[in-house]
Specification:
The complex is a heterodimer of chains A (271) and B (298). Chain A has helices at residues 3-41, 44-48, 50-60, 70-79, 81-95, 97-105, 108-112, 118-150, 159-186, 190-211, 215-219, 231-237, 242-265. Chain A has one domain (3-265). In chain A, 79% of the residues lie in helices and 0% in strands. In chain A, α1 runs antiparallel to α5 and α5 runs antiparallel to α10 (190-211). Chain A has 13 helices and no strands. Chain A has 271 residues and is mainly alpha-helical. Chain B is α/β, with parallel strands linked by helices. Chain B folds into two domains: 2-212, Rossmann fold (3-Layer(aba) Sandwich), CATH 3.40.50; 221-280, 2-Layer Sandwich (Alpha-Beta Plaits), CATH 3.30.70. Chain B has a six-stranded mixed β-sheet with strand order 6-7-8-3-9-10, sandwiched between helices. A four-stranded antiparallel β-sheet of chain B has the order 2-1-4-5. In chain B, β1 and β2 form a beta hairpin. Chain B is elongated. Classes of the chains: A mainly alpha (271), B alpha/beta (298). Chains A and B meet through α1 and α7 of A and α2 and α3 of B.
Chain lengths: 271, 298
């Protein structure tokens, strides 16, 4: 990897990574801190209410009516819409920066004027986006640990299970980011690329949400990325969701590779 | 040896024209002016040379290498200043030199600092705080810092003050004298005339002239102005066939002389001439003439 290109790309991503990282750190800390007290207030009779079950199911994206224990509260920290919004926002912002962002801002001519191949540019950018993703998820994990450690009666989940959830979340990031890079590779306008990815991610989220209540949506729910991200089952059972992760990682990698091919072959210059 | 060689290069943007059948040869060590109005195809040609755009047909080679397939190798020895320069706003001049040096795997700080002193640029200021002219200076420093064999400058003097423009011209002349090649794209005739030894004129995507500036002037004849005594210009003197007049009135004839000057002198002998001016046309009149010929062509 070209060190100069990587450092430049990492410097470009740094403000987004820092802001979204700080945000997710705070949100995870608060979640982990307040969840034990919420669980304490959540009596068994509440768990029997159909309305409550529906709300929880909608939030988790899966039917948890049989097991509204600590795992359910722990998993909320990883599926809460604010958490997902932060992770997706980082993925969308960072993945659409190059080439669409460079072309849109007019810096592509300067970048490609350097003696580097497009592959080198793409690899450096991928490295910078990947590093940013790891930073954000690491900050989420640290926030979760700190919040849990200062809570009065912390909910405990084995570190290995939380690790699997984080890996599953990384695969989800890869899928969203891969789609973002692919759209960006086809586009000259970053705003347009971001809008396309945002709409796709929102549609994916809504589809999974509707699939919890609506049979027609359930039949096509396999199209939603969220179908392959279910922390509740991981935290409850501790099993590896290998198929889910393979699907997300496969989709993301394929999109990322396709973006690399498009990027290396298309005409590129400031418009 | 030709450093840049374009053979029937065509580049279209869908149905829109970019450049058509452009053939060009830029000798090593030359100061080559690439002249044309806005939208003529100058920037498109440069973008093909640097591998940003793939040719629709024809070939483009720099240092004998294919511009699309071997672009990174070509750019290792090219300094490029884009026409519409946009730099990363968060960078300082030092950051930009450090980044460029890291990518090129060489230290550009010392040479960059020398150039910054020559052009009067503070390298510690962030790009977002620099004026347009100062950004242009930074772009020039980045293009020059690695002492490239070929310098491709797309309208480099825009937004530079006249003193810096002159400094740049001096620097380019020195580079050319040292064997570096300069490809200088511009729509400003006077600067191409004062700087370049060879010029290609591009219009509507096609090259309409390409030769040494002196040859171009020679081929297009002399500019002639004849002032007649007592309105003799209107008194039955028919112009000879080798004198193409663009202005005729009783007191003054002006136009273009084709062929040797002696023919005109012989023809004027004994005629009531008050004053005679004969000179090579400047680039502006050449440029106009080419354009008028093109426009009047069927």
């Amino acid at each position: 990897m070209n060190r100069g290109l990587f450092l430049k790309a990492a410097r470009e991503h740094w403000p987004a990574t820092l802001s979204f990282g700080a945000a997710i750190f705070l949100v995870e800390t608060v979640h982990a801190y307040v969840m034990p007290s919420i669980q304490a207030q959540f009596g068994a009779q509440w768990a029997q209410l159909k309305l409550i079950q529906s709300v929880v199911q909608a939030m988790l994206g899966t039917d948890a009516s049989g097991g509204m224990g600590p795992e359910m509260f722990l998993s909320i920290a990883w599926v809460h819409p604010v958490v997902l919004a932060i992770v997706w926002a980082h993925a969308i912002v960072c993945s659409t920066r190059m080439p669409a962002g460079e072309v849109d801002r007019g810096t592509m001519d300067v970048l490609l004027g350097l003696p580097v191949s497009r592959r080198e540019v793409f690899v450096a950018e991928t490295g910078a986006v990947g590093s940013g993703a790891l930073c954000v998820l690491t900050l989420a994990w640290i926030g979760n640990r700190i919040g849990g450690s200062i809570a009065s009666a912390p909910l405990h989940a084995p570190a290995s299970r939380v690790g699997i959830v984080l890996l599953n979340l990384l695969c989800l990031y890869l899928a969203v980011g891969g789609f973002g890079v692919f759209v960006s590779a086809l586009s000259d306008r970053r705003g347009k690329a971001m809008a396309v990815v945002f709409i796709a991610v929102l549609a994916s989220f809504l589809l999974n949400y509707l699939a919890q209540f609506w049979e027609p949506a359930k039949r096509v729910s396999f199209l939603s990325l969220m179908t392959y991200y279910r922390p509740f089952f991981i935290l409850r059972g501790g099993s590896w969701p290998a198929a889910d992760m393979a699907i997300l990682a496969g989709m993301g990698s394929a999109a990322w590779l396709a973006a690399g091919v498009v990027f290396s072959k298309r005409d590129l210059s400031t418009v | 040896m030709s450093l840049i060689a374009l053979q029937a290069l065509t580049r279209r943007y869908g149905s829109r024209r970019g450049v058509e059948e452009v053939s060009l040869s830029v000798p090593e060590g030359s100061l080559f002016g690439f002249l044309g109005p806005n939208g003529a195809g100058k920037t498109t040609t440069i973008r093909v040379l640097l591998g940003f755009l793939r040719p629709t047909s024809g070939s483009a080679r720099v240092f004998g290498l294919d511009c699309w397939r071997e672009s990174p190798r070509i750019k290792a020895d090219v300094g490029y200043l884009p026409g519409d320069l946009r730099l990363y706003p968060w960078m300082t001049g030092r950051d930009a030199l450090r980044t460029s040096g890291a990518v090129r795997r060489c230290d550009l700080m010392r040479r960059g600092a020398e150039l910054a002193e020559e052009f009067g640029l503070d390298l510690h200021v962030k790009v977002r705080s620099l004026s347009r002219g100062m950004r242009q200076k930074l772009g020039l420093i980045l293009a020059l810092a690695h002492a490239p064999r070929l310098l491709v400058l797309d309208e480099p003097t825009s937004s530079l003050d006249p003193l810096v423009q002159e400094q740049l011209r001096d620097r380019l002349r020195r580079l050319s004298a040292a064997g570096h090649t300069v490809f200088f794209s511009s729509h400003t005739l006077s600067e191409v005339e004062s700087l370049c030894d060879r010029v290609a004129i591009v219009r509507a995507g096609r090259i309409i002239a390409d030769s040494k500036l002196d040859d171009l002037r020679r081929a297009t004849g002399h500019e002639v102005t004849i002032r007649w005594k007592d309105g003799a210009g209107a008194s039955g003197n028919a112009p000879p066939e080798f004198l193409r007049l663009s202005r005729t009135d009783a007191a003054t004839w002006s136009g273009t002389l084709e062929g040797p000057v002696s023919r005109l002198v012989d023809w004027l002998a004994g005629k009531p001439v008050d004053d005679l001016a004969i000179g090579r046309p400047d680039l502006e009149s050449l440029f106009r003439r080419y354009y008028e010929e093109e426009r009047s062509a069927p």
